[in-house]
Amino acid sequence: MYGGNSMSIFTESQLEESIVQLLIDKGYQHILGENITNREITDVILKDDLRSYLSTRYAEDDITGEEVEFLIRELESLDGAMLYDSNRKFIRWLQDGYKLTRFDRSQKDILIQFVDFTDLKRNTFKVVNQLQILENYTPYRIPDALIYINGLPLVVFEFKSTSREEATIFDAYEQITVRYKRDIPSLFVYNALCVISDGVNSKMGSFFAPYEYFYAWRKVTGDEAIESEGIKSLITMIDGLLAQDRLLDVIKDFIFFPDDSKKDEKIVCRYPQYFAATKLYKNIYTAMRPGGDGKGGTYFGATGSGKSYAMLYLTRLLMRSPKFANPTIVLITDRVDLDDQLTDQFVKAKKFFGDENITNVENRRELKSLLGARESGGVFLTTIHKFTEDAGLLSNRSNIICIS
């Protein structure tokens, strides 16, 4: 592989080796699938890793071996035949925790985090390639590479070679979403996101997303003036998305399932949305009174950049953060159609936010009444023309997000 944007010729195995090495350089342990012990070919969870994590992480809670095995059985009970519902349930357990009722009822319940989002070092990160998986009595499948965290297969990679004219990155997408879905669906019960690459083009997205919603990850810090292209974009994806701390950020707060959807809809953030939400969150926290000036900042996003989802992710960060102590969120748009769009998205995000109070406000008087009746909490959506006559209405509120 060569730097720059020039076309490089390499085989799929060379691409696989290169990406595995890049992940090793990022601190991932590497293991060949054939070298994993104590595993059946039908297993997609690395149970020894998961047992070790749970036993160590909850040792101070006196978690028992029986309770650990129960948790593993709960995960394995998620049905690949009902893939969307199973993945949605799993991701919610992953993001917000699983409440374990103790076998000894005299002990307090434990909120189990299958990934430790507060202490990176408590987790086991592995990149596994050439892992044979057998399901549904079909010939076994071998995904090109998998990222396992604490024994859970959270990222699936599929590669295609630029040396074969008939092979394209779209073929990698179809390999995952058509053939793997048909033959090894249980793998995707535990999937957070998918990565496809031919070395020159590299994209990530949700397993349930159409191909056109797979995107490159073109920045590492969000401050770069120029977006990465070509082979450099592959390295940027590794450094910017798959660095261990960044990957945990994305898994925890940037994968969204609507509470109610007529289709299999799972939204994974694009890099502009991630950087917009995280930078605004940090600015808002820094600007909090009395130490700050109360001005959280301004974000300019181009048309079609996904500002509404950036605000959805920002709202989760604010609502779920103990630093903000149940803030009130007021979203103000400048157009009725955008107000309708946001209302539809946010009403379906109550579980994502952890707040049932999502209200579209019809007029200034109603907004004033609703805000006056509560000290904090809730998400309120409106358009700017509904309350511009009363500028003091929002002066003492925690957070205001304006979108246009």
What labels describe this entry?
404 residues, alpha/beta, six-stranded mixed β-sheet, four-stranded parallel β-sheet, 14 strands, globular, disordered N terminus
Query: Largest sheet, if any?
Result: 6 strands, mixed
Q: Note the gap between the termini.
A: 43 Å
Major β-sheet strand ordering: 1-4-5-6-7-8
* Proportion in helices: 25-40%
What percent strand?
Answer: 5-15%
Choose one word for the global shape: globular
Class of secondary structure makeup = alpha/beta
What's the number of helices?
12
* Radius of gyration, in angstroms, nearest whole number: 23 Å
Total strands? 14
Mean pLDDT: 89
List the helices and strands in order: HEHHHEEEEEHEEHHEEHHEHHEHEE
- pLDDT under 50 segments (min length 5)? 1-7, 391-399
Notes on the protein architecture:
The chain has 404 residues and is an alpha/beta fold. 35% of the residues lie in helices and 15% in strands. Helix 2 packs across helix 3 and helix 8 (271-287) crosses helix 9. The radius of gyration is 23 Å and the shape is globular. Residues 1-7 and 391-399 have low confidence and may be disordered.
List the helices and strands and how they pair.
Elements: H1 12-25, E1 29-32, H2 47-57, H3 65-76, H4 83-96, E2 98-100, E3 110-112, E4 125-129, E5 145-149, E6 152-159, H5 169-183, E7 193-197, E8 202-205, H6 230-240, H7 244-253, E9 255-256, E10 267-268, H8 271-287, H9 307-320, E11 329-333, H10 336-347, H11 350-353, E12 358-360, H12 364-372, E13 379-383, E14 399-403
Parallel strand pairs: 1-4, 6-7, 11-13, 11-14, 12-13
Antiparallel strand pairs: 2-3, 4-5, 5-6, 7-8, 9-10
Helix pairs in contact: 2-3, 8-9
